[in-house]
Amino acid sequence: MTGIRSNSKLRIVNSKSKVAVLAGGIGSERQISIASGRCVADALEQAGFAVVTADVRPDNLDILGDAGIDVFFPVLHGEFGEDGRLQRILEAKSLLYTSSGSEASELAFDKMASKKLFDDVGVATPAAVEFVSGIDLPRLEDQLSDLAGKYVVKPVRQGSSVGVTIVSTPHEALRAAQETFGEFGNCMIEEFVPGREVTVGILCGRALPIIEIRTQSDFYDYDAKYVDDQTEYLFDTITDPALAATISRAAIDCFDVLGCRHFARVDFVLGDDQIARVLEVNTIPGFTSHSLLPKAAAKAGLSMSDLCTRIVEAASSSLAGHKA
Predict the structure, then answer these.
(1) Predicted confidence (pLDDT) per residue in 65-102, tens digit
(2) Does residue 130 have an active-site annotation?
(3) Is 97 a catalytic residue?
(4) Which of 69, 134, 164, 189 could pair covalently with 154 via S-S, beta carbons 3.0-4.6 A apart?
């Protein structure tokens, strides 16, 4: 990978710039967001920025009225962070912020809507059906019999493996979907694809090194992400250069078709047939010690300070391009 390292000659922001790190929120990953925000704030301070951190909620957005803030850096995961709601508020106030815009965020957060776009650009994704109010259950059970031999049930609009269940029969899938619908609203029943879990960080339109995730559980769930120290994050395990290039290209295609910007993380399952199927795009992935985007950036030679500075620079550069 070339062209990722920060170049001070191209820097629009400087050490006098003030950055507000927005964390917390109302989502199920609130505590992870607070930890991510702390890491981002520390990294930006080390890079020389003036930094303030705010715990924001829909009813507590006072920080957005601070005219001294040059750039806002949202690190809210899930609801009100990645679903486009906060981004729409920032846009309505004409505030400069990092991460994807409101439309791209909303699309990426909706797993069914994003699947359709991935299919449009030829990126494979596991087959799925949406479970909504009033659905014909007997007909759906017949559909599921033809869909797969094992199923993943997940909310359509949640993050970080929240509410995910793996089951083995159509009947179990329907029962799990009914429970998931009752808690989260619309959900999806997806084909379970056995294989290796891999992820690709995207920074300023370029793919970072691929990480393979090996867990002690059936899949990369919440505990595996944030709690279990036995989860392994491995580089260079895909030894076929052509396959690695295909996965990286697919990640960029997913990033682009959603209209993402600045950074994201794209998750895949690499099946036994050596086809990488995209699972989702995370527009604001974690920035904690367990998090994958910082790990991939480090592999590419970027410290956490480098990574966060590059993201702030990208936001400023996009504004300069827009004004030009």
Answers:
(1) 999 999 999 999 999 999 999 999 999 999 999 999 99
(2) no
(3) no
(4) 164
> When comparing pLDDT for 9 and 265, which is higher?
265
Task: Tell whether 32 is covered by a domain.
Answer: yes
Contact 258, 269 (CB under 8 A): no
Active-site entry in 30, 157, 265, 277? 265
Catalytic residue chosen out of the listed positions 17, 27, 29, 157:
29
CA-nearest of 186, 157, 182 to 84 is 157
CATH number at residue 277: 3.30.470.20
Query: Can you list the alpha helix ranges (DSSP code H) found in the chain?
Result: 30-46, 85-92, 102-109, 111-120, 137-147, 170-184, 222-226, 241-258, 292-299, 304-323
Single out the residue of 27, 228, 175 nearest to residue 165, CA to CA.
Answer: 175
Out of 82, 161, 286, 310, which one is annotated catalytic? 286
Q: Could you give the number of structural domains in the chain?
A: 3
Question: Domain limits at 211?
Answer: 108-124+193-299
**215 and 294 co-located in one domain:** yes
Residue 195: name the closest of 267, 129, 121, 301 by CA: 267
* 165, 191, 217 - which closes a domain: 191
Q: Are residues 273 and 241 in the same domain?
A: yes
**Which residue in 28, 33, 186, 282 is the catalytic one?**
282
Q: Which residue in the list 99, 105, 114, 160 is annotated as catalytic?
A: 160
The answer to whether 163 is a known catalytic residue is no
Q: What is the CATH number of the domain that holds 173?
A: 3.30.1490.20
- 282 is annotated as an active-site residue: yes
106 is catalytic: no
User: pTM for this structure?
Assistant: 0.91
Q: What is the pLDDT of residues 243-296, one digit of tens each?
A: 999 999 999 999 999 999 999 999 999 999 999 999 999 999 999 878 999 999
Do 278 and 181 have their domain in common?
no
CATH number at residue 19: 3.40.50.20
